[in-house]
Fold this sequence. Notes:
heterodimer, A: 7-stranded mixed β-sheet, 4-stranded antiparallel β-sheet, 55% strand, globular, B: mainly beta, 0% helix
Amino acid sequence: DAGVIQSPRHEVTEMGQEVTLRCKPISGHDYLFWYRQTMMRGLELLIYFNNNVPIDDSGMPEDRFSAKMPNASFSTLKIQPSEPRDSAVYFCASSPGRDTQYFGPGTRLTVL
Amino acid sequence: AQSVTQLDSHVSVSEGTPVLLRCNYSSSYSPSLFWYVQHPNKGLQLLLKYTSAATLVKGINGFEAEFKKSETSFHLTKPSAHMSDAAEYFCVVSDLVRRTGTASKLTFGTGTRLQVTL
């Protein structure tokens, strides 16, 4: 299995631009999670899906952030408009429904 | 509410010497506990997990951890450090309060950076 796949691995953009991060979970996993990692706040859960349905988005920082999961093999996290304080590493993880989550390599976002 | 405390933000050991990374947890229920490792510019990799079976859990790369309920601890150990072990290690607790269709939420510690010197 290829594991969780994220793209792009690095993204540099200017303030105000739209950013779209992509994730392909492990096949057969029912849960998909989006996390953000910063030096100041560590790892934070942003949102998670079960069977493509958003279950808990209480961690999404504000309306500029949105996430979708149109099918079982693809999810996006969008930031519009982006701001410098959004700079972070964004991780996607998937789970077969038990406790264990498997993480992707992350997308390092830099907003100038 | 659940929480996890990693007692050391930075640990330095010499290659070939034992590793001890300390973790204490707080949970209202019988928790699941995990250790993840993150190498520089990489994602998080699962090292091992405890889910109420044997209290001594063996993981990958020679790591193991012991669940001690009386001490609310889940310390990570390795008998002999290798240069490739240098990374950030996260202790994680998972709640088991779950409704149908919901997932366990992971609470991450702040991480311990392990440095291995020659």
